[in-house]
Design brief:
Layout: E1 7-12, H1 20-27, E2 33-36, E3 45-49, E4 52-56, E5 69-72, E6 77-78, H2 80-90, H3 94-97, E7 101-104, E8 108-109, H4 112-123, H5 137-146, H6 160-177, H7 192-206, E9 211-212, H8 214-223, E10 228-231, H9 255-262, E11 269-277, E12 280-282, H10 295-303, E13 316-318, E14 320-321, H11 322-332, E15 336-340, E16 350-359, E17 362-364, E18 377-384, H12 401-414, E19 418-422, E20 430-432, H13 438-443
Parallel strand pairs: 1-10, 1-11, 2-5, 2-10, 5-7, 6-8, 7-9, 11-15, 14-16, 15-19
Antiparallel strand pairs: 3-4, 12-13, 16-17, 16-18, 19-20
Helix pairs in contact: 2-7, 4-5, 4-6
The structure holds guanosine-5'-diphosphate, 6-O-phosphoryl inosine monophosphate (IMO) and magnesium ion.
Length: 445
Protein backbone atom coordinates (compact mmCIF):
# COMPACT_ATOMS: atom_id res chain seq x y z
CA UNK A 1 0.00 0.00 0.00
CA UNK A 2 1.36 3.40 -1.01
CA UNK A 3 0.46 5.71 1.86
CA UNK A 4 2.51 8.53 0.37
CA UNK A 5 0.89 8.58 -3.03
CA UNK A 6 -0.94 11.87 -3.52
CA UNK A 7 -3.62 13.25 -5.79
CA UNK A 8 -2.80 16.25 -7.97
CA UNK A 9 -5.38 19.01 -8.21
CA UNK A 10 -6.16 21.10 -11.29
CA UNK A 11 -8.26 24.22 -10.89
CA UNK A 12 -9.04 27.68 -12.25
CA UNK A 13 -7.41 30.79 -10.77
CA UNK A 14 -9.77 33.42 -12.21
CA UNK A 15 -13.56 33.56 -12.79
CA UNK A 16 -13.82 30.23 -14.61
CA UNK A 17 -13.33 29.27 -18.27
CA UNK A 18 -9.54 29.37 -17.97
CA UNK A 19 -9.21 26.27 -20.16
CA UNK A 20 -9.31 23.64 -17.40
CA UNK A 21 -11.02 21.05 -19.60
CA UNK A 22 -8.35 21.25 -22.28
CA UNK A 23 -5.51 20.90 -19.78
CA UNK A 24 -7.15 17.93 -18.00
CA UNK A 25 -7.48 16.27 -21.40
CA UNK A 26 -3.77 16.87 -22.10
CA UNK A 27 -2.73 15.46 -18.71
CA UNK A 28 -5.11 12.47 -18.60
CA UNK A 29 -2.85 9.95 -20.42
CA UNK A 30 -0.56 10.24 -17.38
CA UNK A 31 -3.27 9.55 -14.79
CA UNK A 32 -5.31 6.47 -13.93
CA UNK A 33 -8.22 8.46 -12.53
CA UNK A 34 -9.79 11.88 -13.13
CA UNK A 35 -12.25 12.96 -10.42
CA UNK A 36 -14.49 16.07 -10.50
CA UNK A 37 -14.79 17.47 -7.00
CA UNK A 38 -17.43 20.21 -7.09
CA UNK A 39 -19.85 22.26 -9.15
CA UNK A 40 -22.38 20.88 -11.56
CA UNK A 41 -23.74 21.65 -15.00
CA UNK A 42 -22.99 25.35 -14.54
CA UNK A 43 -19.55 24.27 -15.79
CA UNK A 44 -18.69 24.01 -19.46
CA UNK A 45 -15.30 22.41 -20.13
CA UNK A 46 -14.23 22.40 -23.78
CA UNK A 47 -11.99 19.77 -25.34
CA UNK A 48 -10.77 19.94 -28.93
CA UNK A 49 -9.03 17.19 -30.88
CA UNK A 50 -9.06 15.69 -34.37
CA UNK A 51 -10.93 18.71 -35.68
CA UNK A 52 -13.86 18.30 -33.27
CA UNK A 53 -14.98 20.19 -30.20
CA UNK A 54 -16.72 18.67 -27.17
CA UNK A 55 -18.25 20.45 -24.19
CA UNK A 56 -18.45 18.66 -20.85
CA UNK A 57 -20.72 19.86 -18.06
CA UNK A 58 -20.71 17.18 -15.37
CA UNK A 59 -18.68 14.35 -16.90
CA UNK A 60 -14.97 14.61 -16.02
CA UNK A 61 -12.63 15.72 -18.79
CA UNK A 62 -10.69 12.43 -18.82
CA UNK A 63 -13.58 10.61 -20.48
CA UNK A 64 -12.09 10.46 -23.98
CA UNK A 65 -9.01 8.49 -22.92
CA UNK A 66 -9.32 4.73 -22.86
CA UNK A 67 -8.39 3.17 -19.55
CA UNK A 68 -8.98 6.32 -17.53
CA UNK A 69 -11.41 5.95 -14.64
CA UNK A 70 -13.63 9.03 -14.33
CA UNK A 71 -15.34 9.85 -11.07
CA UNK A 72 -18.09 12.33 -10.26
CA UNK A 73 -17.29 13.06 -6.61
CA UNK A 74 -19.50 13.64 -3.60
CA UNK A 75 -19.01 17.42 -3.86
CA UNK A 76 -20.68 17.58 -7.30
CA UNK A 77 -24.38 18.29 -7.87
CA UNK A 78 -25.98 16.29 -10.68
CA UNK A 79 -28.89 17.12 -12.96
CA UNK A 80 -29.87 13.75 -14.51
CA UNK A 81 -31.57 15.45 -17.47
CA UNK A 82 -28.46 17.42 -18.42
CA UNK A 83 -26.23 14.44 -17.63
CA UNK A 84 -28.16 12.15 -19.93
CA UNK A 85 -28.21 14.77 -22.69
CA UNK A 86 -24.45 15.15 -22.28
CA UNK A 87 -23.86 11.41 -22.75
CA UNK A 88 -25.78 11.59 -26.05
CA UNK A 89 -24.11 14.76 -27.24
CA UNK A 90 -20.66 13.30 -26.65
CA UNK A 91 -21.66 10.26 -28.69
CA UNK A 92 -21.40 7.66 -25.92
CA UNK A 93 -23.86 4.92 -24.97
CA UNK A 94 -24.60 4.18 -21.31
CA UNK A 95 -23.08 0.72 -21.74
CA UNK A 96 -19.80 2.15 -23.03
CA UNK A 97 -19.49 4.30 -19.93
CA UNK A 98 -20.04 1.52 -17.39
CA UNK A 99 -16.33 0.77 -17.29
CA UNK A 100 -15.07 4.33 -17.24
CA UNK A 101 -17.54 6.54 -15.36
CA UNK A 102 -18.38 6.18 -11.67
CA UNK A 103 -20.82 8.33 -9.74
CA UNK A 104 -20.65 9.03 -6.04
CA UNK A 105 -23.71 7.85 -4.13
CA UNK A 106 -23.41 10.93 -1.94
CA UNK A 107 -23.54 13.45 -4.78
CA UNK A 108 -26.66 15.59 -4.49
CA UNK A 109 -29.34 15.75 -7.13
CA UNK A 110 -30.48 18.97 -8.77
CA UNK A 111 -34.27 18.68 -8.98
CA UNK A 112 -36.24 20.43 -11.72
CA UNK A 113 -37.77 22.58 -8.98
CA UNK A 114 -34.28 23.74 -7.92
CA UNK A 115 -34.14 25.48 -11.28
CA UNK A 116 -37.47 27.14 -10.60
CA UNK A 117 -36.07 28.46 -7.32
CA UNK A 118 -32.86 29.64 -8.98
CA UNK A 119 -34.93 31.74 -11.39
CA UNK A 120 -37.14 32.98 -8.55
CA UNK A 121 -34.19 34.14 -6.42
CA UNK A 122 -32.55 35.88 -9.38
CA UNK A 123 -35.82 37.62 -10.29
CA UNK A 124 -36.08 39.33 -6.90
CA UNK A 125 -32.43 40.36 -6.65
CA UNK A 126 -32.57 43.42 -8.88
CA UNK A 127 -29.09 45.02 -8.98
CA UNK A 128 -27.66 42.16 -6.96
CA UNK A 129 -28.55 39.63 -9.65
CA UNK A 130 -25.66 37.17 -9.84
CA UNK A 131 -26.04 36.30 -13.49
CA UNK A 132 -26.40 32.65 -12.52
CA UNK A 133 -26.41 29.99 -15.22
CA UNK A 134 -29.86 29.12 -13.78
CA UNK A 135 -29.03 25.43 -13.61
CA UNK A 136 -30.29 25.15 -10.03
CA UNK A 137 -26.80 25.07 -8.51
CA UNK A 138 -27.40 27.49 -5.61
CA UNK A 139 -30.71 25.94 -4.48
CA UNK A 140 -29.31 22.37 -4.73
CA UNK A 141 -26.31 23.25 -2.53
CA UNK A 142 -28.68 25.15 -0.20
CA UNK A 143 -30.71 21.97 0.33
CA UNK A 144 -27.51 20.00 0.87
CA UNK A 145 -26.37 22.35 3.64
CA UNK A 146 -29.90 22.62 5.06
CA UNK A 147 -29.90 18.79 5.25
CA UNK A 148 -32.99 18.54 3.12
CA UNK A 149 -31.37 17.47 -0.15
CA UNK A 150 -31.67 14.21 -2.07
CA UNK A 151 -28.57 12.23 -2.92
CA UNK A 152 -28.03 9.96 -5.90
CA UNK A 153 -28.31 6.79 -3.79
CA UNK A 154 -31.64 8.04 -2.39
CA UNK A 155 -33.11 7.54 -5.86
CA UNK A 156 -33.02 3.77 -5.27
CA UNK A 157 -34.92 3.92 -2.00
CA UNK A 158 -38.63 3.01 -1.71
CA UNK A 159 -39.72 6.41 -0.46
CA UNK A 160 -37.86 8.41 -3.13
CA UNK A 161 -40.99 9.58 -4.95
CA UNK A 162 -42.54 10.77 -1.72
CA UNK A 163 -39.40 12.67 -0.71
CA UNK A 164 -39.05 14.09 -4.20
CA UNK A 165 -42.63 15.38 -4.18
CA UNK A 166 -42.34 16.88 -0.71
CA UNK A 167 -39.19 18.75 -1.66
CA UNK A 168 -40.66 19.87 -4.97
CA UNK A 169 -43.76 21.21 -3.21
CA UNK A 170 -41.60 23.11 -0.73
CA UNK A 171 -39.68 24.66 -3.63
CA UNK A 172 -42.85 25.78 -5.38
CA UNK A 173 -44.23 27.26 -2.16
CA UNK A 174 -40.97 29.15 -1.69
CA UNK A 175 -40.99 30.46 -5.26
CA UNK A 176 -44.61 31.57 -4.82
CA UNK A 177 -43.79 33.32 -1.57
CA UNK A 178 -41.26 35.38 -3.53
CA UNK A 179 -44.06 36.42 -5.86
CA UNK A 180 -42.52 34.43 -8.71
CA UNK A 181 -44.70 33.17 -11.52
CA UNK A 182 -43.08 30.03 -12.92
CA UNK A 183 -45.83 29.11 -15.37
CA UNK A 184 -44.01 30.49 -18.42
CA UNK A 185 -40.55 29.28 -17.40
CA UNK A 186 -38.66 27.13 -19.91
CA UNK A 187 -36.00 24.56 -19.06
CA UNK A 188 -33.58 24.15 -21.95
CA UNK A 189 -36.59 24.77 -24.19
CA UNK A 190 -38.96 22.44 -22.28
CA UNK A 191 -42.02 23.11 -20.14
CA UNK A 192 -41.68 22.06 -16.49
CA UNK A 193 -43.74 18.89 -16.98
CA UNK A 194 -41.78 17.75 -20.04
CA UNK A 195 -38.52 18.54 -18.35
CA UNK A 196 -39.53 16.66 -15.21
CA UNK A 197 -40.47 13.61 -17.29
CA UNK A 198 -37.13 13.69 -19.11
CA UNK A 199 -35.40 14.25 -15.75
CA UNK A 200 -36.78 10.96 -14.41
CA UNK A 201 -35.81 9.14 -17.62
CA UNK A 202 -32.32 10.58 -17.21
CA UNK A 203 -32.24 9.45 -13.59
CA UNK A 204 -33.09 5.86 -14.57
CA UNK A 205 -30.28 5.98 -17.08
CA UNK A 206 -27.85 7.29 -14.47
CA UNK A 207 -28.78 4.47 -12.14
CA UNK A 208 -27.34 2.04 -14.70
CA UNK A 209 -23.88 3.50 -14.12
CA UNK A 210 -21.73 2.19 -11.27
CA UNK A 211 -22.14 3.99 -7.95
CA UNK A 212 -19.29 4.31 -5.46
CA UNK A 213 -18.39 6.16 -2.31
CA UNK A 214 -15.89 8.46 -3.94
CA UNK A 215 -13.83 8.91 -0.75
CA UNK A 216 -13.09 5.17 -0.59
CA UNK A 217 -12.69 4.75 -4.33
CA UNK A 218 -10.24 7.62 -4.70
CA UNK A 219 -8.20 6.74 -1.60
CA UNK A 220 -8.00 3.07 -2.62
CA UNK A 221 -6.78 4.10 -6.06
CA UNK A 222 -4.06 6.18 -4.43
CA UNK A 223 -3.22 3.27 -2.08
CA UNK A 224 -2.68 1.06 -5.12
CA UNK A 225 0.00 3.49 -6.31
CA UNK A 226 -1.99 4.85 -9.26
CA UNK A 227 -2.11 8.55 -10.18
CA UNK A 228 -5.24 10.58 -9.50
CA UNK A 229 -6.07 14.02 -10.95
CA UNK A 230 -8.79 16.04 -9.19
CA UNK A 231 -10.62 18.32 -11.65
CA UNK A 232 -12.10 21.59 -10.44
CA UNK A 233 -14.87 23.62 -11.99
CA UNK A 234 -15.46 27.39 -12.02
CA UNK A 235 -12.55 29.39 -10.61
CA UNK A 236 -11.04 30.68 -7.37
CA UNK A 237 -12.66 34.12 -7.67
CA UNK A 238 -16.08 32.42 -7.82
CA UNK A 239 -15.43 30.42 -4.63
CA UNK A 240 -18.22 30.55 -2.04
CA UNK A 241 -15.82 31.67 0.73
CA UNK A 242 -12.98 33.46 -1.05
CA UNK A 243 -14.59 34.73 -4.25
CA UNK A 244 -16.22 38.11 -4.84
CA UNK A 245 -19.22 37.30 -2.63
CA UNK A 246 -22.17 37.42 -3.26
CA UNK A 247 -21.28 37.22 -6.96
CA UNK A 248 -19.97 33.69 -6.66
CA UNK A 249 -21.08 30.12 -7.14
CA UNK A 250 -22.23 27.93 -4.24
CA UNK A 251 -19.32 25.49 -3.87
CA UNK A 252 -15.67 25.36 -2.83
CA UNK A 253 -13.82 25.86 -6.08
CA UNK A 254 -10.41 25.94 -4.38
CA UNK A 255 -7.85 23.22 -3.58
CA UNK A 256 -9.54 22.59 -0.23
CA UNK A 257 -12.67 21.73 -2.23
CA UNK A 258 -10.82 18.69 -3.58
CA UNK A 259 -10.49 17.48 0.04
CA UNK A 260 -14.15 18.02 0.94
CA UNK A 261 -15.51 17.06 -2.47
CA UNK A 262 -13.63 13.78 -2.78
CA UNK A 263 -12.84 12.82 0.79
CA UNK A 264 -9.10 13.41 0.46
CA UNK A 265 -7.00 14.30 3.48
CA UNK A 266 -4.97 17.53 3.04
CA UNK A 267 -1.80 15.44 3.37
CA UNK A 268 -2.91 13.49 0.30
CA UNK A 269 -2.77 16.51 -2.01
CA UNK A 270 0.34 16.61 -4.20
CA UNK A 271 0.79 19.11 -7.00
CA UNK A 272 -1.71 21.94 -7.43
CA UNK A 273 -1.95 23.04 -11.07
CA UNK A 274 -3.33 26.56 -11.36
CA UNK A 275 -4.79 27.40 -14.76
CA UNK A 276 -5.07 31.03 -15.85
CA UNK A 277 -5.72 32.91 -19.06
CA UNK A 278 -3.16 35.44 -20.31
CA UNK A 279 -5.95 38.00 -19.74
CA UNK A 280 -9.18 37.87 -17.71
CA UNK A 281 -12.79 37.09 -18.45
CA UNK A 282 -15.91 36.96 -16.35
CA UNK A 283 -19.42 35.90 -17.26
CA UNK A 284 -22.24 37.11 -15.05
CA UNK A 285 -22.24 40.03 -12.61
CA UNK A 286 -19.78 41.17 -9.97
CA UNK A 287 -16.63 43.25 -9.65
CA UNK A 288 -14.03 42.97 -12.38
CA UNK A 289 -11.25 45.50 -11.73
CA UNK A 290 -9.49 45.26 -15.10
CA UNK A 291 -12.60 45.03 -17.28
CA UNK A 292 -12.28 46.71 -20.70
CA UNK A 293 -15.10 48.52 -22.41
CA UNK A 294 -13.10 49.57 -25.46
CA UNK A 295 -11.68 48.10 -28.68
CA UNK A 296 -9.09 46.04 -26.77
CA UNK A 297 -11.92 44.32 -24.87
CA UNK A 298 -13.78 43.62 -28.09
CA UNK A 299 -10.61 42.28 -29.68
CA UNK A 300 -10.07 39.86 -26.77
CA UNK A 301 -13.70 38.70 -27.01
CA UNK A 302 -13.59 38.13 -30.77
CA UNK A 303 -10.09 36.66 -31.06
CA UNK A 304 -10.66 34.51 -27.96
CA UNK A 305 -14.22 33.57 -28.92
CA UNK A 306 -15.23 34.57 -25.43
CA UNK A 307 -18.81 33.37 -25.37
CA UNK A 308 -20.01 31.09 -22.55
CA UNK A 309 -19.69 27.33 -23.17
CA UNK A 310 -22.82 26.71 -21.07
CA UNK A 311 -25.05 29.70 -21.76
CA UNK A 312 -23.58 31.30 -24.91
CA UNK A 313 -23.46 34.68 -23.13
CA UNK A 314 -20.69 37.08 -24.21
CA UNK A 315 -17.95 37.04 -21.57
CA UNK A 316 -16.70 40.31 -20.10
CA UNK A 317 -13.01 40.74 -20.98
CA UNK A 318 -10.12 42.61 -19.37
CA UNK A 319 -6.37 42.67 -18.77
CA UNK A 320 -4.59 40.17 -16.54
CA UNK A 321 -5.00 41.05 -12.86
CA UNK A 322 -1.81 40.07 -10.98
CA UNK A 323 -2.87 40.92 -7.39
CA UNK A 324 -5.96 38.73 -7.95
CA UNK A 325 -3.80 35.97 -9.46
CA UNK A 326 -1.38 36.13 -6.53
CA UNK A 327 -4.32 35.86 -4.13
CA UNK A 328 -5.56 32.76 -5.97
CA UNK A 329 -2.07 31.23 -5.88
CA UNK A 330 -1.99 31.77 -2.10
CA UNK A 331 -5.46 30.33 -1.41
CA UNK A 332 -4.73 27.20 -3.42
CA UNK A 333 -1.05 26.64 -2.68
CA UNK A 334 -0.43 26.48 -6.44
CA UNK A 335 2.78 24.60 -7.26
CA UNK A 336 2.70 24.95 -11.09
CA UNK A 337 1.11 27.59 -13.25
CA UNK A 338 -0.33 26.82 -16.66
CA UNK A 339 -1.16 29.77 -18.91
CA UNK A 340 -3.74 29.50 -21.69
CA UNK A 341 -4.88 31.68 -24.58
CA UNK A 342 -1.76 33.85 -24.99
CA UNK A 343 -2.34 33.32 -28.74
CA UNK A 344 -5.48 35.46 -28.44
CA UNK A 345 -3.19 38.47 -27.85
CA UNK A 346 -0.94 37.76 -30.86
CA UNK A 347 -2.02 40.87 -32.74
CA UNK A 348 -1.89 43.34 -29.85
CA UNK A 349 0.95 45.88 -30.17
CA UNK A 350 0.77 46.67 -26.43
CA UNK A 351 -0.51 44.74 -23.49
CA UNK A 352 -1.40 45.94 -20.05
CA UNK A 353 -1.20 44.03 -16.80
CA UNK A 354 -2.65 45.14 -13.47
CA UNK A 355 -0.12 45.37 -10.62
CA UNK A 356 -2.21 47.09 -7.93
CA UNK A 357 -5.33 49.07 -7.11
CA UNK A 358 -5.39 52.79 -6.43
CA UNK A 359 -7.67 54.54 -3.98
CA UNK A 360 -6.97 58.27 -3.57
CA UNK A 361 -3.16 58.40 -3.62
CA UNK A 362 -2.73 54.99 -2.00
CA UNK A 363 -1.77 51.99 -4.12
CA UNK A 364 -2.33 48.53 -2.71
CA UNK A 365 -1.33 45.12 -4.00
CA UNK A 366 -4.08 43.51 -1.97
CA UNK A 367 -7.42 42.67 -3.55
CA UNK A 368 -9.85 44.84 -1.55
CA UNK A 369 -12.60 43.25 0.59
CA UNK A 370 -15.21 44.80 -1.70
CA UNK A 371 -13.95 46.16 -5.00
CA UNK A 372 -16.01 49.24 -5.77
CA UNK A 373 -14.98 50.85 -9.10
CA UNK A 374 -16.15 54.22 -7.69
CA UNK A 375 -13.42 53.94 -5.05
CA UNK A 376 -10.65 51.93 -6.72
CA UNK A 377 -8.95 51.96 -10.08
CA UNK A 378 -6.42 49.44 -11.40
CA UNK A 379 -2.77 50.43 -11.79
CA UNK A 380 -1.33 49.04 -15.00
CA UNK A 381 2.13 48.19 -16.26
CA UNK A 382 2.26 48.48 -20.03
CA UNK A 383 4.29 45.97 -22.00
CA UNK A 384 5.18 45.37 -25.62
CA UNK A 385 3.10 42.78 -27.45
CA UNK A 386 4.76 39.98 -29.45
CA UNK A 387 2.77 40.68 -32.64
CA UNK A 388 3.43 37.29 -34.14
CA UNK A 389 1.58 34.02 -34.36
CA UNK A 390 2.45 31.37 -31.75
CA UNK A 391 -0.13 28.65 -32.51
CA UNK A 392 2.19 26.43 -34.53
CA UNK A 393 5.29 26.61 -32.31
CA UNK A 394 6.73 23.32 -31.13
CA UNK A 395 8.77 24.29 -28.11
CA UNK A 396 8.43 26.70 -25.20
CA UNK A 397 11.88 28.06 -25.92
CA UNK A 398 10.80 29.23 -29.42
CA UNK A 399 8.22 31.62 -27.96
CA UNK A 400 8.82 35.27 -28.92
CA UNK A 401 10.93 37.26 -26.45
CA UNK A 402 8.14 39.74 -25.67
CA UNK A 403 5.91 36.85 -24.56
CA UNK A 404 8.73 35.32 -22.51
CA UNK A 405 9.16 38.75 -20.87
CA UNK A 406 5.42 38.82 -20.09
CA UNK A 407 5.70 35.36 -18.52
CA UNK A 408 8.74 36.38 -16.48
CA UNK A 409 6.88 39.46 -15.22
CA UNK A 410 3.99 37.26 -14.05
CA UNK A 411 6.32 34.74 -12.39
CA UNK A 412 8.22 37.46 -10.55
CA UNK A 413 4.96 38.92 -9.25
CA UNK A 414 3.32 35.69 -8.06
CA UNK A 415 6.47 33.67 -7.26
CA UNK A 416 5.41 30.46 -8.98
CA UNK A 417 6.81 29.26 -12.33
CA UNK A 418 4.72 29.09 -15.49
CA UNK A 419 5.61 25.57 -16.64
CA UNK A 420 3.18 25.12 -19.50
CA UNK A 421 1.69 27.45 -22.11
CA UNK A 422 -1.31 26.50 -24.19
CA UNK A 423 -1.21 28.08 -27.66
CA UNK A 424 -4.64 27.13 -29.03
CA UNK A 425 -7.74 25.07 -28.25
CA UNK A 426 -6.45 21.76 -29.64
CA UNK A 427 -4.92 19.17 -27.32
CA UNK A 428 -1.74 19.24 -29.44
CA UNK A 429 -1.24 22.99 -28.92
CA UNK A 430 0.74 22.77 -25.71
CA UNK A 431 4.28 23.87 -24.86
CA UNK A 432 6.16 22.57 -21.83
CA UNK A 433 9.17 24.41 -20.49
CA UNK A 434 12.50 22.55 -20.46
CA UNK A 435 13.73 22.16 -16.91
CA UNK A 436 10.26 22.55 -15.42
CA UNK A 437 10.59 19.34 -13.43
CA UNK A 438 7.35 17.54 -12.73
CA UNK A 439 5.36 18.57 -15.80
CA UNK A 440 8.33 18.12 -18.08
CA UNK A 441 8.81 14.56 -16.81
CA UNK A 442 5.11 13.96 -17.34
CA UNK A 443 4.58 15.56 -20.74
CA UNK A 444 7.87 15.68 -22.63
CA UNK A 445 9.07 12.38 -23.97
P1 LIG B 1 -12.96 25.70 -18.81
O1 LIG B 1 -14.33 25.94 -18.30
O2 LIG B 1 -11.92 26.22 -17.88
O3 LIG B 1 -12.69 24.28 -19.20
O4 LIG B 1 -12.82 26.58 -20.13
P2 LIG B 1 -13.91 26.72 -21.32
O5 LIG B 1 -13.90 25.48 -22.11
O6 LIG B 1 -15.21 27.20 -20.80
O7 LIG B 1 -13.33 27.95 -22.11
C1 LIG B 1 -12.05 27.92 -22.66
C2 LIG B 1 -12.18 28.14 -24.19
O8 LIG B 1 -10.92 28.45 -24.70
C3 LIG B 1 -12.64 26.91 -24.92
O9 LIG B 1 -13.36 27.31 -26.07
C4 LIG B 1 -11.33 26.24 -25.32
O10 LIG B 1 -11.46 25.44 -26.49
C5 LIG B 1 -10.47 27.43 -25.60
N1 LIG B 1 -9.05 27.28 -25.30
C6 LIG B 1 -8.42 26.57 -24.33
N2 LIG B 1 -7.09 26.82 -24.34
C7 LIG B 1 -6.88 27.70 -25.36
C8 LIG B 1 -5.73 28.37 -25.86
O11 LIG B 1 -4.61 28.22 -25.37
N3 LIG B 1 -5.93 29.23 -26.92
C9 LIG B 1 -7.14 29.45 -27.48
N4 LIG B 1 -7.24 30.29 -28.49
N5 LIG B 1 -8.25 28.83 -27.02
C10 LIG B 1 -8.12 27.98 -25.96
P1 LIG C 1 -16.42 26.54 -15.69
O1 LIG C 1 -16.22 25.27 -14.92
C1 LIG C 1 -17.56 30.73 -15.74
C2 LIG C 1 -20.68 31.97 -12.92
C3 LIG C 1 -22.02 32.39 -13.48
C4 LIG C 1 -22.46 33.36 -12.40
C5 LIG C 1 -21.92 32.75 -11.12
C6 LIG C 1 -22.94 31.89 -10.38
O2 LIG C 1 -16.84 26.32 -17.10
O3 LIG C 1 -15.23 27.43 -15.56
P2 LIG C 1 -24.22 29.60 -10.81
O4 LIG C 1 -24.77 29.02 -12.07
O5 LIG C 1 -23.17 28.79 -10.17
O6 LIG C 1 -25.30 30.03 -9.88
O7 LIG C 1 -23.54 30.99 -11.28
O8 LIG C 1 -20.83 31.93 -11.52
N1 LIG C 1 -20.23 30.63 -13.35
C7 LIG C 1 -19.25 30.41 -14.23
N2 LIG C 1 -18.51 31.28 -14.95
N3 LIG C 1 -17.31 29.41 -15.80
C8 LIG C 1 -18.01 28.54 -15.06
O9 LIG C 1 -17.69 27.22 -14.99
C9 LIG C 1 -19.07 29.02 -14.25
N4 LIG C 1 -19.97 28.44 -13.43
C10 LIG C 1 -20.67 29.43 -12.87
O10 LIG C 1 -21.89 32.98 -14.73
O11 LIG C 1 -21.81 34.59 -12.58
MG1 LIG D 1 -16.13 26.84 -18.93
Amino acid sequence: MEQNNRADVLLGLQWGDEGKGKIVDVLTPHYKMVARFQGGPNAGHTLAFEGKKYILHTIPSGIFHRGCVNVVGSGVVIDPFIFSQEIDQLGFTTDELKESLYLCKKAHLILPSHRVLDAAYESVKGELKIGSTLKGIGPAYTDKVARTGLRLADASSDDFDKRYNELKNTHFRLAESLGFDSSELKFDGHSFDDYEKAWFEGLNRLLELPQVQSERFVNQTLDSGARVLAEGAQGTLLDIDFGSYPFVTSSSTIAAGACTGLGLAPSRIGEVFGIFKAYCTRVGSGPFPTELFDKDGEQLREEGQEYGSTTGRPRRCGWLDLPALKYAVMINGVTRLIMTKADVMNKMPRIKVCIGYKSGDQVSEVLPFDYDPAEFSPVFEEMKGWETSIEGLESFEELPQALLDYVKFIEDYVNVPVDVISTGPDRKQILVRQGSGFLQRLLLK
